[in-house]
Amino acid sequence: QKFKMGLAKTRDTFTSKVNDLIARYRKVDEEFFEELEEILLQADVGFETVMELMDELRFEVQRKNMNDTEGIYEIICEKLVEIYEKGEEGISELNLQPEGELTVILFVGVNGVGKTTTIGKLAHRLKNQGKKVMLAAGDTFRAGAIEQLQIWGERVGCEVIKQSEGSDPAAVIYDAINAAKKRGVDVLICDTAGRLQNKVNLMKELEKIHRVISREIPNAPHEVLLALDATTGQNALIQAQTFKEATNVTGIVLTKLDGTAKGGIVLAIRNKLNIPVKFVGLGEKIDDLQPFDPERYVYGLFA
Ligand code: GDP
C-alpha cells in the first residue's frame, strides 16, 4: 500500500496516459508503439531501456498474433519486470553478516539527495529487525552534517560516533569500527561527504576509508550504498556513473520517488549501470523506506 501511495505521482501521469492510449487505439500498430515509446521516455525510463522494451513488445505481439490492445498491459508489465531483473529475481537484499559479526555499510552520494535521512530510515528499519545499530558521522565536510546525523541517531535510538567538523573521515570511521566491536553492534552505517566537484579528491577519500575499514574487517565494507534523488532524473544517472568509477557501489537507494512523476528512472538506472536498486525512499518520515521490489513497482504503476 505504501509503495502504491509513494508512486502516486508517477502513476497519475504515466498510467493515465497509457490508459488513454489503449482506449484510443483498438489495434496494436506501429503508431501505437510510437506513442507508447514517447510516454515511456517522458517517464524517464531511459532511451536504451525503452528501445529494448519496444523490441520485446513488437516481438511478443507478433508471436501472440495480437490484433487488439486487450492484454497489452500484461505484456508491458511482464517485459518491464524482465528487463529490470535481468535474470536476478525479486528483492535485492542487504548483504548482512551472520549473527555475532559486524556488518559495515558505507553510504555515498552528493549533498541534498537525502543521504542522511536515508541513513536514519535504514537504521530504524534494522533496529526494528532486532539489530543493534551504530552510526558513524563520516561527513565531516558539510556544515551541519554531523548534527543532523546526531538528531537522526536520537530519533532512532542508536549511538552516533563523531569528531569535530573538518576532521579526517577515515579516523572517524576507524573509531566507530572499534566502538562497534566493543559494544557488540550488528550493523555500523557510515556517512561520507558527497563532494562530486572534485572527483580525484572524492576517490582518494573513499579509497582511504575503504582501506581503513578492510584493515579492521576483511571483506568490509559489506555494502556501499549510493543515494540518488529520483527527482533529478537523468542527472541521477550521471552522478551514479561518477560514483561507480570512484568506488565499488553495491546497491542504490533511490530517494524521493514519491516526489516525481518520472519514476521510470528506476529502470534506466538498473539497465544502464547494472547495480541493483535495494531501497526506495517514498517520503520524509522515518518509515518511508521500502525494499525495492521490481514486480510490485511495475504492477504498482498500472494497478
Ligand atoms: P543529504 O544532504 O543528502 O543528507 O539530504 P537530507 O537527508 O538532508 O535530505 C534532504 C531533503 O530531502 C530533506 O528535506 C528530506 O526530508 C528530504 N527527503 C529525503 N528523502 C526523501 C524521500 O524519500 N521523499 C521525500 N519526499 N523527501 C525526502
From TrEMBL:
It is a peripheral membrane protein. The keyword Transport does not apply. Keywords: Cell membrane, Cytoplasm, GTP-binding, Hydrolase, Membrane, Nucleotide-binding, Receptor. Residues 276-289 form the SRP54-type proteins GTP-binding domain. The keyword Cell membrane applies. Transmembrane segments: none annotated. Part of the signal recognition particle protein translocation system, which is composed of SRP and FtsY. This is Signal recognition particle receptor FtsY. It comes from Ureibacillus thermophilus.
